[in-house]
């Protein structure tokens, strides 16, 4: 601790000299480092391992060339998002950031391995537990290794963004509400202080802005379409962010069953364990797409699709065909996949049909959904936004790689080459409908079809033919 003071004395009334009181500079103690020590770091392709001194501090993993790292420049640094066992290297980890940057590291002894394993686990405080929760066994899943140790989620929708973008989104929403009479979707219990959140209360500003810009219909508040739309948006919020099923206000927890494309029904606890992505993609044939929900995990799916759609994946009700207690309606999902600056943005649209059985309290007892999962995954795969879990075991993890173990993103090659087809038109949309929005974002490009090579003869058929996917290309410069 340093001291600051005058070296000259002063004289009191008695003539004796006295020393002025010493002033001590206030030096804030640095926050403690979670763990530090020597680890081996794998270089790029055909490169050897090198020893680096690693420091785990406030969720950031930094590599230095010396143990005296204070005031020294770091060689590598990542914000820890996912930590996995390395399938190729003994006592190794693969550390992945939200942007896809990876570090492959390995301990030099079992004692150090155990220390780092414990430190990575503690990043999930205040509940230091394995994030992988037991989930409903699925066919051929008994031998799947659950090797995700840590997943650091976020309360911001989509997965990653900045506070500046969030502030800009809120300001633009307020402008749209004041000048255009727009209505932001309502998610009930979002402001409830007693909710047990997985992380913290989610912020839907960016997603709501995407919804307001891209929605097809202006449903009048109080209408059955508005009610169903808010019900499903609240249900999605509860599935993704509420950790206690008993606090799900949109479902009857004892009676709730979710069924997708006539697959085996899932209870509320099953959906909680699997997450919304894997629950709705479990029926997709793994051999015909680059994503296998049966070999995925809730956190891996969140990372994959959250990163694939950095602006979010908005959802809206198109039309309601029957009223409560048995509500049937068509819907639309859309979003803009990850792309390089200046590149063409390809909007992915997904259409489907859902039937809800509601009780007297308007809680969901049954949910049956039909949509073309294969076409959706195929559209993402063509843009190299998905990657099979097995593929990650057959390549070296490079510290210079910008590719996540769950994503294979090459935005410069992300383009679609389908030809125009009238078959991509959504059958639920009526050009003469008075509810069509007049303020939908203008798109000066052609409509492209997204063919699916799945076998339709054995697939469950929706009586309303609600299985359509459409992609529309626009320029990001406009």
| Order of neighbouring strands in the sheet with most strands | 8-7-6-5-11-10-9-12
**Can you summarize the main beta sheet?**
8 strands, antiparallel
E-strand count: 19
- Indicate the CATH architecture of the domain at 163-383: Roll
Derived structural class: alpha+beta
Report the principal-axis shape. Answer: elongated
Helix content: 10-25%
Intertermini distance: 57 Å
Low-pLDDT parts are 1-17, 21-30, 125-152, 388-425, 427-478
Cα-atom radius of gyration: 27 Å
CATH class identity of the domain at 163-383: Alpha Beta
Helix tally equals 7
Key words describing this protein structure:
PH-like_dom_sf; PH_domain; Pathogen-related_defense; eight-stranded antiparallel β-sheet; seven-stranded mixed β-sheet; PH domain-containing protein; Nuclear Transport Factor 2, Chain: A; 478 residues; elongated; alpha+beta; disordered C terminus
